[in-house]
Design goal:
Length: 125
């Protein structure tokens, strides 16, 4: 049985759920590696697929109060991090709609690169 996913983001480097290998995102979506989660280092991504979301909740975090949703793998339900819905401070608004994945709960894997198709010119004699 292959990897189970509902969506696949493609790319040369992929991030997968460490528990079930479901495809989550790729390196092109990575915004920052300078975040901290419950398990240690965490990464901020622009777009992540194959997630389920908890109800919104307000949390006091290191950078202020934020409204967030926990995110889990859609395939195995492992909690992987959270998504920022709203930031109270203007300087933190860049996080809104972005997803944090905890490094200990994901794995990086080689993906694939689409090969550009070459145009063949027809030569008629």
């Amino acid at each position: 049985m292959g990897r189970i996913f509902l969506e696949h983001s493609g790319g040369a480097k992929l991030f997968l759920c460490a528990n079930c290998d479901a495809s989550l995102t790729n390196r092109e979506q990575l915004l920052s590696t300078r975040f901290t989660g419950a398990t240690g280092r965490a990464f901020l991504f622009k777009k992540v697929v194959n997630l389920t979301f908890s109800e919104m909740q307000e949390r006091q975090m290191l950078t202020g109060r934020h409204v967030v949703r926990d995110v889990s793998c859609k395939n195995c339900n492992t909690k992987l991090g959270w998504m920022y819905e709203f930031a109270n401070e203007e300087s933190q608004r860049y996080k809104e709609g972005r997803v944090i994945l905890e490094r200990a709960l994901i794995v990086e894997s080689d993906g694939f690169v689409d090969q550009p198709t070459r145009r063949r010119s027809a030569v008629f004699h």
